[in-house]
Design brief:
The chain is an all-alpha fold. The chain is built from eight helices and no strands. The longest helix has 35 residues. The radius of gyration is 21 Å and the shape is extended. The two termini are 32 Å apart.
Length: 167
């Protein structure tokens, strides 16, 4: 059933366009032009974030910051095994998935740490990546939004760990 949803959606779009007499190919070409312009606009911001994240991880700064934050996280009920994951998650989706796999390998997929890590990764966002992608130079004052996003991510992390501990 789910294999037919996307083709049905595309067919429905073509049907609606035909009823409204929209030139589908021309509309597609205009959309593609807009996508290329958008990609060219946001590429420098995206590249900067990806390079910064890579440097952050490869330099060992993420591990150092995770060790420094471990006592604070422990106070909030976050297992110390997850500190590096929590530090990396707002910056890198692929980096946090790699750390999630490491948690699975080290502690087992059914452990409390693995369950909490899964919920954290599944319910949080890569804040800086999203800011670079959607900000893309158009938004000039988003420091407040970044701070609120990081606070919300941390609150979600604390609640995730609490819920995993209770279940």
């Amino acid at each position: 059933m789910s294999a037919y949803i996307l083709p049905a959606f595309i067919a429905l779009n073509f049907l609606i366009a035909a009823i409204r007499r929209v030139p589908v190919f021309d509309a597609f070409i205009e959309g593609a032009k807009g996508a290329v312009r958008l990609a060219a606009e946001i590429f420098p911001y995206l590249a900067a974030v990806l390079i910064a994240v890579s440097l952050f991880k490869q330099s060992g700064l993420s591990l150092l910051l995770a060790k420094a934050a471990a006592p604070i996280f422990r106070f909030f009920g976050i297992p110390p095994e997850l500190t590096e994951l929590i530090v990396v998650r707002p910056m890198s989706g692929s980096g946090s998935i790699g750390l999630l796999s490491e948690v699975y390998r080290t502690y087992g997929a059914d452990s409390y740490a693995a369950r909490a890590a899964s919920v954290i990764v599944g319910s949080s966002e890569t804040v800086f990546y999203v800011a670079a992608l959607y900000g893309g130079g158009r938004v000039k004052r988003y420091k407040g939004a970044l701070l609120i996003s990081l606070i919300a991510t941390f609150a979600g992390t604390v609640i995730s760990c609490l819920l995993c501990r209770l279940m």
